[in-house]
Amino acid sequence: MSYTVPPTRTAAVVRQLRNEIVTGELPPGTLIKDAELAARLGVSITPVREAIAQLSVEGLIDIAPNRTRHVTKVTQKNALELIDVMSVLACAGFEWGVENLTSTHLDQLRRRQKEFVEGLRSGNVLGAAPAGAEFSSIVILASGNRELQSLVDLVVARTNRILVMTAESDIFPIWVAGHEDILELLDRGDTQGAAARYRQIYVDYRAKVERELFEE
């Protein structure tokens, strides 16, 4: 996930709409109208349409055969499928990158963990989520496989959306505690243990989402 300013109007619209969807400001099922969005965001129709196409690829907007667009609804089935896909991609990248971590990487991990925790403590879930995602990205990028990171980035926003939906539950301690354990293991040089602990985060996260997010 990038902290940089979007380089184009389309990128800016993508970021704005993604944030509104992830936070629930645009609830699931909301009808997306090009002209209304363009007027509200102060841009032309073109970057709005390009942004909608990008968010459709990310799975945040559904485009029906009749070309109407709605914010994608989150069901238990697609939430768990998303977590499964994210787990496969992120855990593979973590395992490939963990052996290449340097002291500089470890310092970056500590900084991102601090930002993650401080964001959660202040109630800024949307701000905390990118820092939490960056914790994983640092390790994945250490593998040197940028194609894998690109695939992970495609599902990060959708995963963050699930995290925000569970903001009032005790889902976040799973990630906080997991990251802390991983840092301790890495400090001891136990890279295999760190990779195993990372995999366990996803096991615990999936189980918690299945029990809590869609409970009757």
Unreliable stretches (pLDDT < 50, length at least 5) are none
Number of β-strand runs: 3
The largest beta-sheet arranges its strands as: 1-3-2
Q: Helix count, per DSSP? A: 9
Order of helices and strands: HEHHEEHHHHHH
Based on CA inertia axes, which overall geometry fits?
globular
Beta fraction of the residues? under 5%
Report the oligomer: single chain
Helix/strand-derived class? mainly alpha
- Return the average pLDDT rounded to an integer: 86
Helical content class: over 70%
Distance linking N and C termini = 34 Å
**Describe the biggest sheet?**
3 strands, antiparallel
Radius of gyration: 18 Å
Give the secondary structure arrangement, pairings included.
Elements lengths: L8 H15 L7 E2 L1 H8 L3 H13 L3 E3 L5 E3 L4 H22 L5 H19 L3 H18 L3 H20 L6 H16 L3 H22 L4
Antiparallel strand pairs: 1-3, 2-3
What this model shows, in words?
This protein is mainly alpha-helical and 216 residues long. The protein has nine helices and three strands, in the order αβααββαααααα. It has a three-stranded antiparallel beta sheet. Strand 2 and strand 3 (69-71) form a beta hairpin. The radius of gyration is 18 Å and the shape is globular. The two termini are 34 Å apart. The mean pLDDT is 86.
Which features does this protein show?
single chain, 216 residues, mainly alpha, three-stranded antiparallel beta sheet, 3 strands, 71% helix, globular
